[in-house]
Design brief:
4 domains; mainly beta; Immunoglobulin-like; 2 helices; 14% helix; 5-stranded antiparallel beta sheet
Length: 400
């Protein structure tokens, strides 16, 4: 009877276990119910999840992983969690740049989330991305991507055409510009160089047309280069303003295109004539030594002129001199040279440059021997006084 009772109890326990297994088969290997939310981090995406991107230039969803490079206009990140095996009811996407601290977080209910990275920042850079899906059991499923380079912003591409002379002194400057960011309007600056591209002068800024009429009647003859600086301006962004260009432009990415060098037969360059200088001699150590040089321009004069002074072929110093008339006299301090002969070159940086050459002989000071003799006498006298003082002290001590 006792064996029969044990058999009945064992049979009932097996039936209860089978009923529970049929009702909830996936919990066979599950842990006990969580007292607080736990986190499950996926090392790789299972077929039921994905993290993709699209853009205005890429309509088909593209998977991406760590160290990916994504290029497009308005890049949108998309994360999807299907209903098996994780029933996700809430999504959160967190994206940040570890170096600059740029970050953003978006949250939505459901198993899908999207984020347009265009307004995240105004530069192209790398980000880390975490997408967290909260399940019906209050667990977390985390998708991770590190060092993903996101390039939303395209620099404008400028092509400058050859200038067209439409009148004696009028040139039509034209160019073309392309920008792959659909919402961008390009604002232009026109620059001009007449020294081979070393220095550019601004003609006009903040124009949107791709042409400009240059009045060259006030410019000297010579070879010129046109530079067109283009900047991207997205007027759909609240961050973009036109009140303080170019600092108020957004996103502000830019590039510059240049024309080929062309010749302009404008105002002849004024000629510079320089007075000659006789050779100079001064004593070593003396001060106030200077040389006066007379400059004369043929008909017009610049606002200033630079000169470079070399001593025996080695750079010594340079000066910038203001010019207020066609004739000016400049004075250069030439003190401080060592004893010996110095071949001095003064080069004036104007037009094709003009130079002046003279010799400075620095001789030993005429007071040199006298100073040496005086110094010797002074030393001997001092020694004599010290010796006499010592003898006096010895005699005084012996008497006491």
């Amino acid at each position: 009877m006792r064996k029969f009772t044990c058999f009945i109890i064992a049979t009932l326990l097996m039936c209860v276990m089978l009923i529970q297994l049929n009702e909830n088969p996936q919990n066979l290997n599950s842990p006990q119910p969580y007292q607080k939310p736990s986190s499950v981090t996926l090392s790789s995406d299972p077929p039921e999840t994905n993290l993709t991107w699209t853009s205005r230039t890429q309509y088909v969803s593209q998977l991406f992983g760590d160290n990916s490079v994504i290029i497009g206009d308005h890049i949108v990140l998309n994360a999807t969690f299907t209903q098996t095996p994780y029933v996700v009811v809430k999504c959160e996407l967190y994206i940040w740049n570890p170096q600059y601290g740029t970050n953003a977080t978006v949250t939505t209910w459901g198993s899908r989330i999207s984020f347009d990275t265009y307004y995240l920042d105004r530069i192209n850079q790398a980000y880390n991305i975490r997408v967290t899906g909260t399940t019906v059991k209050n667990d977390y499923v985390v998708l991770s991507r590190d060092n993903v380079s996101i390039y939303n912003f395209y620099h404008p591409v400028v092509t400058v055409n050859n200038p067209i002379e439409i009148d004696d002194y009028l040139f039509n400057l034209t160019w073309s510009c392309s920008d792959l960011n659909r919402d961008d309007v390009n604002y232009f600056e026109v620059w001009l160089s007449n020294d081979g591209g070393s220095v550019f002068h601004l003609l006009v800024r903040n124009i949107t047309q791709t042409w400009f009429i240059w009045d060259s009647s006030y410019w000297l003859e010579g070879d010129y280069i046109i530079g067109i600086h283009a900047q991207s301006v997205d007027l759909t962004s609240a961050e973009c303003r036109l009140d303080d260009p170019p600092r108020s432009y957004w996103p502000g990415d830019s590039s510059t295109g240049y024309s080929v060098q062309f010749q302009h037969t404008g105002i002849p360059r004024p000629l510079l004539s320089i007075s000659t200088i006789d050779d100079i001699t001064y004593e070593y150590g003396s001060t106030g030594n200077s040389v006066k040089i007379a400059l004369r321009f043929s008909y017009n004069h610049p606002a200033s002129i630079n000169c470079v002074v070399r001593d025996n072929g080695t750079y010594w110093f340079e000066r910038s001199i203001s010019v207020e008339s066609i004739q000016v006299i400049i004075e250069l301090d030439i003190s401080g040279l060592s004893i010996g002969s110095h071949n001095i070159d003064v080069e004036f940086l104007f037009g094709d440059n003009a130079s002046l050459n003279f010799v400075i002989d620095v001789i030993e000071s005429s007071l040199g021997p006298f100073i040496s003799l005086s110094l010797s006498i002074g030393i001997m006298g001092g020694i004599t006084i010290i010796v006499m003082f010592i003898i006096y002290m010895k005699i005084r001590q012996s008497r006491t």
